[in-house]
Amino acid sequence: YLRSKRYYGEDNLPVNILYKIKKKYADKKIFGITEVSTDVSTDYYIKLEDEKNWTTIKSDASGSFEVFEKFQKQ
């Protein structure tokens, strides 16, 4: 087992992570989530959208997160 990827919406995101994202980024919509699991850890890449930007937040299972990438819409 090397790693697996799953793609889903905010309904399947762990509640602790969802709460923190919704609190900090209340003005953004969750577009989609990519979950990357290995035998050591699980990371979540949460794609957020607003009128001007796409932002990807990387979170670990404990809910610690950071901005992974940010793109301006054309």
Keywords:
51% strand, five-stranded antiparallel beta sheet, mainly beta, 74 residues, 1 helix
General description of the model:
- This protein has 74 residues and is mainly β.
- 14% of the residues lie in helices and 51% in strands.
- It is built from one helix and five strands, in the order E-H-E-E-E-E.
- The protein has one helix at 15-24, and strands at residues 4-8, 29-37, 42-49, 53-60, 65-72.
- The chain has a five-stranded antiparallel beta sheet, with no helix packed on it.
- The longest helix has 10 residues, at 15-24.
- The termini are far apart.
- The mean pLDDT is 95.
Please outline the helices and strands.
Layout: E1 4-8, H1 15-24, E2 29-37, E3 42-49, E4 53-60, E5 65-72
Antiparallel strand pairs: 1-2, 2-3, 3-4, 4-5
Class from secondary-structure proportions: mainly beta
Largest sheet: 5 strands, antiparallel
Q: Estimate percent helicity.
A: 10-25%
Spans of at least 5 consecutive residues whose pLDDT stays below 50 are none
What's the pLDDT, averaged over the residues?
95
Summarize the structure.
The chain is mainly beta and 74 residues long. It has one helix at residues 15-24, and strands at 4-8, 29-37, 42-49, 53-60, 65-72.
